[in-house]
Amino acid sequence: MTNKRVLGAVAALMLLVACSGSGSNVPMEDLSAQQIFELGERQIEAGNPDDAAVTFGEIERLYPYSEFAQRALIMQAFAYHRDRDYPNSRASAQRFLDFYPAEQDAPYAAYLLALSYYDQISDIGRDQGLTFQALQSLRRVIETYPDSPYAAASVAKFDLAFDQLAAKEMEIGRYYLKRANYAAAANRFRTVVEDFQTTTHTPEALHRLVEAYLSLGLTDEAQTAGAILGYNYQSSDWYAASFALLTGRGLVAEAAGDNWLASIYRQVIRGEWL
Q1: pTM tops 0.85
Q2: Residues 118 and 100 in one domain
Q3: Is residue 119 part of a domain?
Q4: Does residue 273 share a domain with residue 186?
Q5: Contact of 259 with 220, CB cutoff 8 Å
Q6: Can you tell me the distance from the alpha carbon of 241 to that of 226, in angstroms, rounded to the nearest whole number?
Q7: Which residues of the chain have pLDDT under 70?
Q8: SS3 259
Q9: Domain final residue pick, 55, 83, 111
Q10: Who contacts 2 (Cβ-Cβ below 8 Å, separation ≥6)?
Q11: Which of 31, 68, 107, 223 maximizes the CB count within 10 A of its CB?
């Protein structure tokens, strides 16, 4: 009996060693769902998330109705994300949400899906299509799972991504402004003021509107932009710069005329904006 126990222990140890690396000398078909799952976990710990993703996928193939199939799918999404294989991470996370929308790990799956976009956001000099996708996915986490531990993290990332879109508009607006294409520049800065007013770029956008509108001879708009800037950011350097521009033309920072900025100014005074 003792010899049998020793032989059994040796066999178990050999199986563990064989499965402990990035691969396995034992056919997957000969392993239980739990053994495959544990192999995938070891592969992640060993720094082989690409192998782990494939291993977790084997559970879905071999044991689709086991209790480990659900856990393996979310772990596969995690492994792909760890490997920076974002399209496959997104696909696995979405498949989890399709199959298990009410399960405990659903909020994490939605968060991983959002991260698959967010972690690909490039610098502001490039196309921001992924930023839009990230914003939509992060909003879904926030609205669908507001009590989950991933909601707060999604809010923080949403704000950063939102700020990045505003930064892109500002970059393009400055480009047009430097090339004396004032109308195009004003349109970009208007987008920031109207659509991204909660970002850090709003004060500069208002100042740039003062610059652009003065260059276009639209003094009412320039004065009103200066008034909004002064009302909300009077202590900022941007307001000081706008004030100098306006007074240099014999103008003051006050609401004037009937234009889109005057409408915003009235809302500001009533406390309905910013």
Answers
A1: no
A2: yes
A3: yes
A4: yes
A5: yes
A6: 10
A7: 1-25, 122-127, 268-274
A8: coil
A9: 83
A10: none
A11: 223
